[in-house]
Specification:
heterodimer; A: alpha/beta; Rossmann fold; five-stranded parallel β-sheet; globular; B: alpha/beta; 2 domains; seven-stranded mixed β-sheet; binds thiamine diphosphate
Amino acid sequence: MDKQTYSPELLTHLFRQMTLVREFELRAIAERRGGLIPGFIHSCVGQEATAVAACAALSQQDVITSTHRGHGHLLGKGGDPKYMMAELAGRSAGYCLGRGGSLHIADFNLGILGANGIVGGGFPIAAGAALAFQMRKEARVALAFFGDGAINEGTFHESANLAGLWRLPVIFFCENNLYGEGTPQHKQAPITDLARRADGYGFPGVIVDGNDAIAVYEATQEARRRALAGNGPTLIEAKTYRFRGHYEGDPQVYREPGELEAWQARDPVPAFRARLLASGLYDEAQLAEIEASVQAQLDEAVAFAAAAPAPAVEEALQGIYADTHEGLVF
Amino acid sequence: MRELTYSEAVREAMSEEMRRDPSTFLMGEDVAVFGGVWGVSEGMLAEFGEERVRDTPISEAAIIGAGLGAALVGMRPIVEIMFGDFLMCGGDQIVNQAAKARFMSGGKAHVPLTIRVTTGAPGSAAAQHSQSPESWFMNVPGIKIAVPATPADAKGLLKTAVRGADPVLFFEHKMLYGETGSVPEDADFTLPFGQASVVREGSDVTIIAISIMVRKALAAADLLAGEGISVEVIDPRTLVPLDKETLIQSVAKTSRVIIAHEAHLRSGPGAEIAAVLAEEAVEYLDGPVIRIGAKNVPLPYSPVLENFVLPGTEDIVAAVRLLVRR
Ligand SMILES: Cc1ncc(C[n+]2csc(CCOP(=O)(O)OP(=O)(O)O)c2C)c(N)n1
């Protein structure tokens, strides 16, 4: 890492957001145990670098589609942990008024077109948003996050083909964490380097170390440049690993012995921290201060969620259509 | 008023909306160069160019989902799915994505997406190209469903769909494309969803007829008039939302009701309508609610078999006679 290339703002942003994602997940897990959060949590602990650094390479006007493992993507794209925590708690102060929960958080102002409960559900949506940008000649891209499991859904292939054919400004960002639920990647596809699939659709596929925030940032930036130059999509395969269960409560019987420990030795958050210290650009006190500010922000988020009132039951009947038609059967 | 075919009326609605709003565009399989396999979009490529009249790969999930994605960032796409039977290939994008985006996002998502799709049996197209899948989607809150039976309704409802902010499944019956009728020329002619049309007034029996069955119900009404039976024909025009008031008012007048659709009988649109009448209009009824629909078998290829399975004018006539003689 050299100071010529990367501004302190960017480095601080990456470190702060990665710390925020890690700590947000740990808080959410604790609050789920404590009863504040009623629903599923698919944490992205271990995958902070992919989520944060990919989003850091985007502009505010760019859009993302996210997944069931989406908290990192949302925070990376500027999501406010306060409204996220309130949504996880099912409160009407949450991003989706408590109607969506972890799997469905969206914020169109931030370019978050939605997490998704359907594996592979976001590909066509990202392609369509990119089509709109292309038609309107806007300098914007759409980035679809997805897992190594999702790449086997038909929607990937339909959307990659369409995006390749029309040279849509899309980035297909695969977080290959080696598992889809409990089934290892090598039992889900006959190839291990999923980036190769891009070749069939006429655009480049690149492999990147998903635990290296700078590498992820650079690859995404390059893909974005390509897209904005009118050269179409890129498939980025970021090799990474999730440290916790598929969902909180997963017994995790499927891991290879020693596998988790080996990946934990390459934990992206402390790795980036060490790199910042080694660069001489930051000292221990500065980083500790950032970490403390993250904790303070999360204290506030949890308190906000806990204090927010539950929705009124009638709210369940609202907001299904743009208009309401009194007396009609909907 | 000039006459148009149903197909021309759909094309006119699309073209007018595309002239009116640059964010409206059409995409689907063979809609551009070929003009749509049903010919509905013929000539539109020449007027609007390939940016806005787009041939797509054969990828129903990508077509519907890309329409949704474009809608979420401010476009008003019209997508065409060649056969209603193929909606299942893009089913997730309709049922789990488009229909729920607004609700799940706490009202943040606007989904001005119109999915035009053909429905019904065109004759010996067999089991995978003949279905009337409207009611499959009636069970999914968040999607609206239009089933126009006339050229004017097709134009007015399609324009409303395109201008709206919700996803609409717009079912065009293949055997109605050639049907002619007078259609308003006004470029701002629209018809509201949730407003049934009283197609023919009568006093003895109400026939609630959907899509192509409107035509068959009118034929039945003509026949029955010769027997001194006065038939009222009501077309709901949209199944979601459903104008139950008009249906109930008619039943209050006639005390007898038949619901006719080409969809399979079991859990077809008639099941929902019958339930609404049972719940809210039972005091007006002098007899059972009778449903007429396709027999509950996959649609067969051989014309002999197909005719046997599909509901026809004679089925309506027989049901009316039965009800009136009770
Ligand atoms: C269409 C669909 N099929 C199955 C599931 C159940 N499911 C949820 S997450 C998941 C694994 C997804 O694996 P991957 O895409 O690699 O993402 P990861 O969980 O590893 O982040 C499965 C099978 C689902 N939600 N949607």
